Structure formats: structure tokens, C-alpha cells
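Page 47, continued from p. 46.
Same chain as before, 531 aa.
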Amino acid sequence: MTDLSALVRHSNAWPFVEARALWDERLKTVTPAKGYVLFETGYGPSGLPHIGTFGEVVRTTMVRRAFEALSPGVATRLFAFSDDLDGLRKVPDNVPNREAMTPYLGKPLTRIPDPFGTHESFGHHNNARLRAFLDSFGFEYEFKSATAAYTSGEFDAALRRVLEKYDEVIEVMLPTLGPARRATYSPFLPICPKTGVVLQVPIVARDVGAGTVTYKDADGRDVTTPVTGGHCKLQWKCDWAMRWYALGVDYEMSGKDLIDSVKLSGRICRILGAAPPTNLTYELFLDEGGQKISKSKGNGLTVDDWLKYAPAESLALYMFQKPKTAKRLFFDVIPKAVDEYLDFLEKFPGEAVEVQLNNPAWHIHHGKPPQDTLSLGFGMLLNLASAAQAQEPAVLWHYISRFVQGATPATAPLLDRLVKHAVAYYRDFVVPAKKYRKATAEELAAFIELRDGLKALTGEQTPESFQTLVYEVGKHHPGLYPSLRDWFQALYQVLLGQDQGPRMGTFIALYGRGECIALLDRAIAGEDLAA
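Result:
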């Protein structure tokens, strides 16, 4: 073992915990006969990639990189598997000319014309969107298509194995089904040679030697078809198990809603003759009201939503944190996630290696976080935008370039990205929520004292000296502000139009002493600061 792999053995970061479980419990210190350890993520291409797709791939990648640190020299691969031979169950809401797709219900996604007119099929279109989506984040993966695997013969041996173990598979599945479904259930779904529809029909005969099944078609005729070569597809729980068996999948995670499916597919995988992959069950996301996020309801954030207001690294951090705990996913969580990411990034260079292994920045950047040093948090940028009423990034850069020596969009690219995100977030969320109040007659003395103190301040003017002044002014008015928290809240409400705000010393240094004096002058004069 290298020194790093020895340290990894003791790290309690969850990707390392998962990597150790994979190595110790499944592989038992032996590299698989196929020569690599296989990680897999699955995708149903009846819809477009979504934030759950990102979460599953980024978390799986974190475990993969943790495993590589634990077991240097052992090759790994990641398959992004698309179940594109699945039959279309309903026409999606977000496609053009929806009526034209109705005649293709029940047909495999890769045999349905592309309503967007850009690819050979609807399945190919959505697969291309998946690949472009994953590529945009720089994920390292290999795309696998169910259609290609079934029709090329890659799954033929495994499909014959399912046919051979048909009765045992049925024994596992039937107790989980209702009476009506039991009567027609078969692991194999023949694809009708006349209509192209994926059929849910009873199997009336099987021939293990010939590798065929027989079913009755709509006319009552017996139809015999091979289970290989793409003539049949498997029901999805059996399909999942067969895929694990055929490909030799070592690790795959899944959502809490699939716990029972993981158990069933694992039993079937063992019947076929292989151990199911190591699995992590992650919790699902909730909306602002605590309800499960649903694509059909549209009650959650999309990846595009997040990336409009924050960098992808902050979304990766959100996915990293407590994957087994349900979390609310809505717009208000974004600023905190960005600042937490920046905090982890800033701490990383000064940490001991064993501490770095627990730092989310290690897992977000695969052990090599960027060395960007930032003096400004996202929350502070939002407060600056609020005070300056910034509608363009250039407005913020006017203040930043004075505060951070030598900082420009070219020399501080991460900061430049954050500035653009902050302006967008300020415009869409902060402005509509702003609610200024005027200082009361009793408060004017405190605001005047702060203004005059800023005017009279001599010596080195630093965030600390400004902060000390603000503290002292607040302490001079205990009857009006029983605690400093009350004083700061008054400043936020009057000057920024919000209940919470920045560390005032840093804000004054960033916004500028003269600008803050002018802002206080306007507040003292009773002007409308929203104008």
C-alpha cells in the first residue's frame, strides 16, 4: 500500500467508506477476472437528464475515485447505461407534436421517430442529450445502450441463462405481484415482429435448448421467438439483475424508492450465478414544503436552474453532503452551498493529508482542487449587489477591484463566475424580496453616530477597524438595541432592505467608506433607498 491508500483506510468520508466496503466485502482483495472494477449508473431515456441524473453520476464518480485512491493500480470503468429498448408508456409533456407520438406507444424508444427531428429515433435523441449533459461536467464514463447490447448479442448468454433459470426467477417475482399481474407475468417481453410493440403477454411454452419462448398473439396464434438478438427484452427488475450478471457490475447506487427492487434484483442475480453489486441507497430530494420532488409535478430545481445561479462545484458539494439524509432542494439553499464550497476550497491547502481526505473539495475535484484564493464569499457578493443595486457584473467589479488587489475577471476566473451568478441571483430572488424600512426617529442618533464615526475614522482602515466602529456604536444605544444582533438587523433592514446581511466591517471595506457614508446620509434624510 502507498501512504495515501493507508490513510484512505482510516478516512470516514462516505466515498471512502463505500470504497472500502466494495473492496473488502465484494472483491475480497482480488481484482475481478474481467480485469477491472465496474461502476454503473442507469438512465431511463423516456425523459431528459435531470438533477437526479447528475447526483447519481457525480456520487458514483466520487466513490470510483475514492476506490482508485484505496487500490492504486486496479483499473476501473464507469458505464452510463441507457434502458433505451424500453417501451414508451406515455407521451412526454415536453416534446413537440405530441399527438404524432401516440401511435408509437408501447414501442421501444429507439424505434420511435424523433419528434425533435435531429436523430434517428426518440431514444437516440435523449441518449445524445444524456451524453452531452454528462460531457458538459467532464465526467469520465462509457455510454452503454440497451438496444445495442440486446441486438448485438452481448446479452445473449445472459438471456439464455435467465431462460434456463426461468422457474426460479418466477418464484422470486410472483409473490410481489397482484393477482391480475401474476396471471400474465413473464420475465421475457417479446417484441412483436408485426407491430414492433414490447408485449406484456403470458409465455405458453419455453425451449431452453433452442433459446426460444412461445406466446399467443392478438389473433390467438402461437408465436415462437428467440430470447436473444433483441427479439425479447426483460422486465426491468429482471433486466437489472441480468445486466449486473452479464456485465459484471461491481457497484451501483440507487434511490430510496428502489430499495425493494434492489433486493429482488439481487436475488435474481444470485440465481443467475453472480453476486449483486455493492449498493448505496441514497435519500430522495424534497421541495421547499418537504414534499418529494417529482419531474411530472415540476416542484423542484433543475440542473439548469442551479447552474444559472451557482457553479457546478457547489451542486456537487450539495450532492456530496449526507447522501443518506433527505434534503430540501430549492433556490434558497444555493447561496449557502456556494459559500460552504468556497470555505472547503480555501481550507484545503493548509490541511494535513488525512484531513484533506475528509474535505469535500478532495472528492469534488478528485484529489486536486484548484488553488484559487478568494477573499469574498457568495453571500457578500449578494449583499454588495444589493447595496449597489447591481444589474451587471461590471458594477460589482468596480468595487471588487478596489478591495482585492490586482483582481480582474481575467486573473480571478472563479470569482468572475461567482460575480455573474450573484448578479443573476440578486436580480431574480433578492430584488423581489427586498423590503426597506426607514429608520425611526429614535434610531436616527445611532445612524448619525455611525456616519460621523466613519467620517472621522483615521489610521489604517481595514474591515476590522470598521467592524470595531460598528460594534462601539451599537453598544452606545443599549436601550434601543438590547443586543448587537438587534443593531445589525436594523442596519440590514434600513440600508439593504433585508433581515439578514453581511459582516458589516467587511461590507464597508468592500463597498467603500465614502459610499457607505452616502448611503447613511440618504437613510438619515429619510430617502427611499429602494429607488
